[in-house]
Amino acid sequence: MHVLKRGVPRVVDAEVRRRAVVDALFRVVRREGVEQASLRNVADEAGLAIGSVRHYFDSHDELLVFALRELEERVEVRMRAGVERISAAGTSGERGPLVEALLGELLPLDADRHDESVIWLAFVTAARTRPSLRPSALRLHQGVRMIVGKVLAGAVSYGALPADLDLDVERERLAALLDGLAVTAVLQPDLTTPEVMTAVLRRHLAELAR
Amino acid sequence: MHVLKRGVPRVVDAEVRRRAVVDALFRVVRREGVEQASLRNVADEAGLAIGSVRHYFDSHDELLVFALRELEERVEVRMRAGVERISAAGTSGERGPLVEALLGELLPLDADRHDESVIWLAFVTAARTRPSLRPSALRLHQGVRMIVGKVLAGAVSYGALPADLDLDVERERLAALLDGLAVTAVLQPDLTTPEVMTAVLRRHLAELAR
DNA sequence: ATTTAAGTAGCACGACCATGCTACAAACGA
DNA sequence: TCGTTTGTAGCATGGTCGTGCTACTTAAAT
């Protein structure tokens, strides 16, 4: 009945294990899609027995939910770092490239972020018919729009963008553009190269600045 | 050995039946996602026995491929009609709204096109890991970009858009915007209303025209 | 040293899946 | 009229799935 503190290393191990299982899950999803991310396939990929995976995740659904939260966190960390980098830049002249870099973090410009985008699209589309995934999917959606909104508002306040912009419309427009680029890069990677994506993003930002 | 013409009505019936099965498939996909579109579920939805469905489609995969081709055709028909409407409009003054309407055909602005977009996204993401669906997915991708490219080039030639536009970049930008709007409308329909989508599209076209 | 908990593993069950195959009815061509 | 094709239906097989459950091992706690 005593719910006191236990041996320390155990807890750490548990967290590491959960992370390892999630990484295995991500590899399966990237390679074969969410529908193939069964407990069996994930356990195999992680080099564990199916029962071991279930020790850390009570159900298949819980594993998926946890994995999507993990993805959420990774994106959030990268965004937060980008925002801080912009805040640290004093003069407005330096901010342009930093804004482009921040928004570029949402695009699959390198192999890691490509994989991340693949997993993002897989989970977020799965969330349409899986209620347990919807909260995370919604947070990701809103998070991107919040970042984009802040960036635009900040640029206006610095005089980098005209003050008469309809920020609600511009936020949705830029967010949809980023989503669209990521989606096409995931679905047709041969046709949507990093160069194309950066050119499109740069053009969009330049045009916003008139 | 005689491969001659058979009784006429049979062929018609067969085509009608295949269409009915595909419609049932679309309803299942819309409601529960591609992963639930098993032969059993589709047969139930169509009110047929599983064996009957298999009489028209030799395999599950063939059914999916046929269904995606059907979707391809529907989109193509609507696009062709829109293009003709633009070609029929003589003066350049009338073309603006027609262009907006044509590109709007690619957005889920009403219930029917919303369903169509849901199915589009489901199939096209499934195509990432299903080789048999890739050709259709690629054609849809290229088709949209061809239409968008023609529209932009036409607008330039009519003087409605500045001649110094980088059409390759603008084509990808507008196509990604349309894809992104459709995706977010499918995944977060409550947050991405038809009004938002039309406002974003209108704004983009207006800005292109400088 | 003994108890307690956590980690690992695997079996068994019921459900669902695609597909090969057979059977029967209706309609058509000869 | 007979035989062939076409539509409809259902059975059996082999596979994958999530999950409940049990067993064994390791290590920490008392």
Automatic annotation (TrEMBL), chains A, B:
Key words of the record: DNA-binding, Repressor, Transcription, Transcription regulation
Domain HTH tetR-type: 15-75
Residues of the signal peptide: none
GO molecular function list: DNA-binding transcription factor activity; transcription cis-regulatory region binding
Lineage, highest ranks first: Bacteria, Bacillati, Actinomycetota, Actinomycetes, Pseudonocardiales
Organism superkingdom: Bacteria
DNA-binding span(s): 38-57
SUPFAM superfamilies: Homeodomain-like (SSF46689), Tetracyclin repressor-like, C-terminal domain (SSF48498)
Name of the protein this chain belongs to: TetR family transcriptional regulator C-terminal domain-containing protein
InterPro entries according to UniProt: BetI_C (IPR039538), Homeodomain-like_sf (IPR009057), HTH-type_TetR-like_transc_reg (IPR050109), HTH_TetR (IPR001647), Tet_transcr_reg_TetR-rel_C_sf (IPR036271)
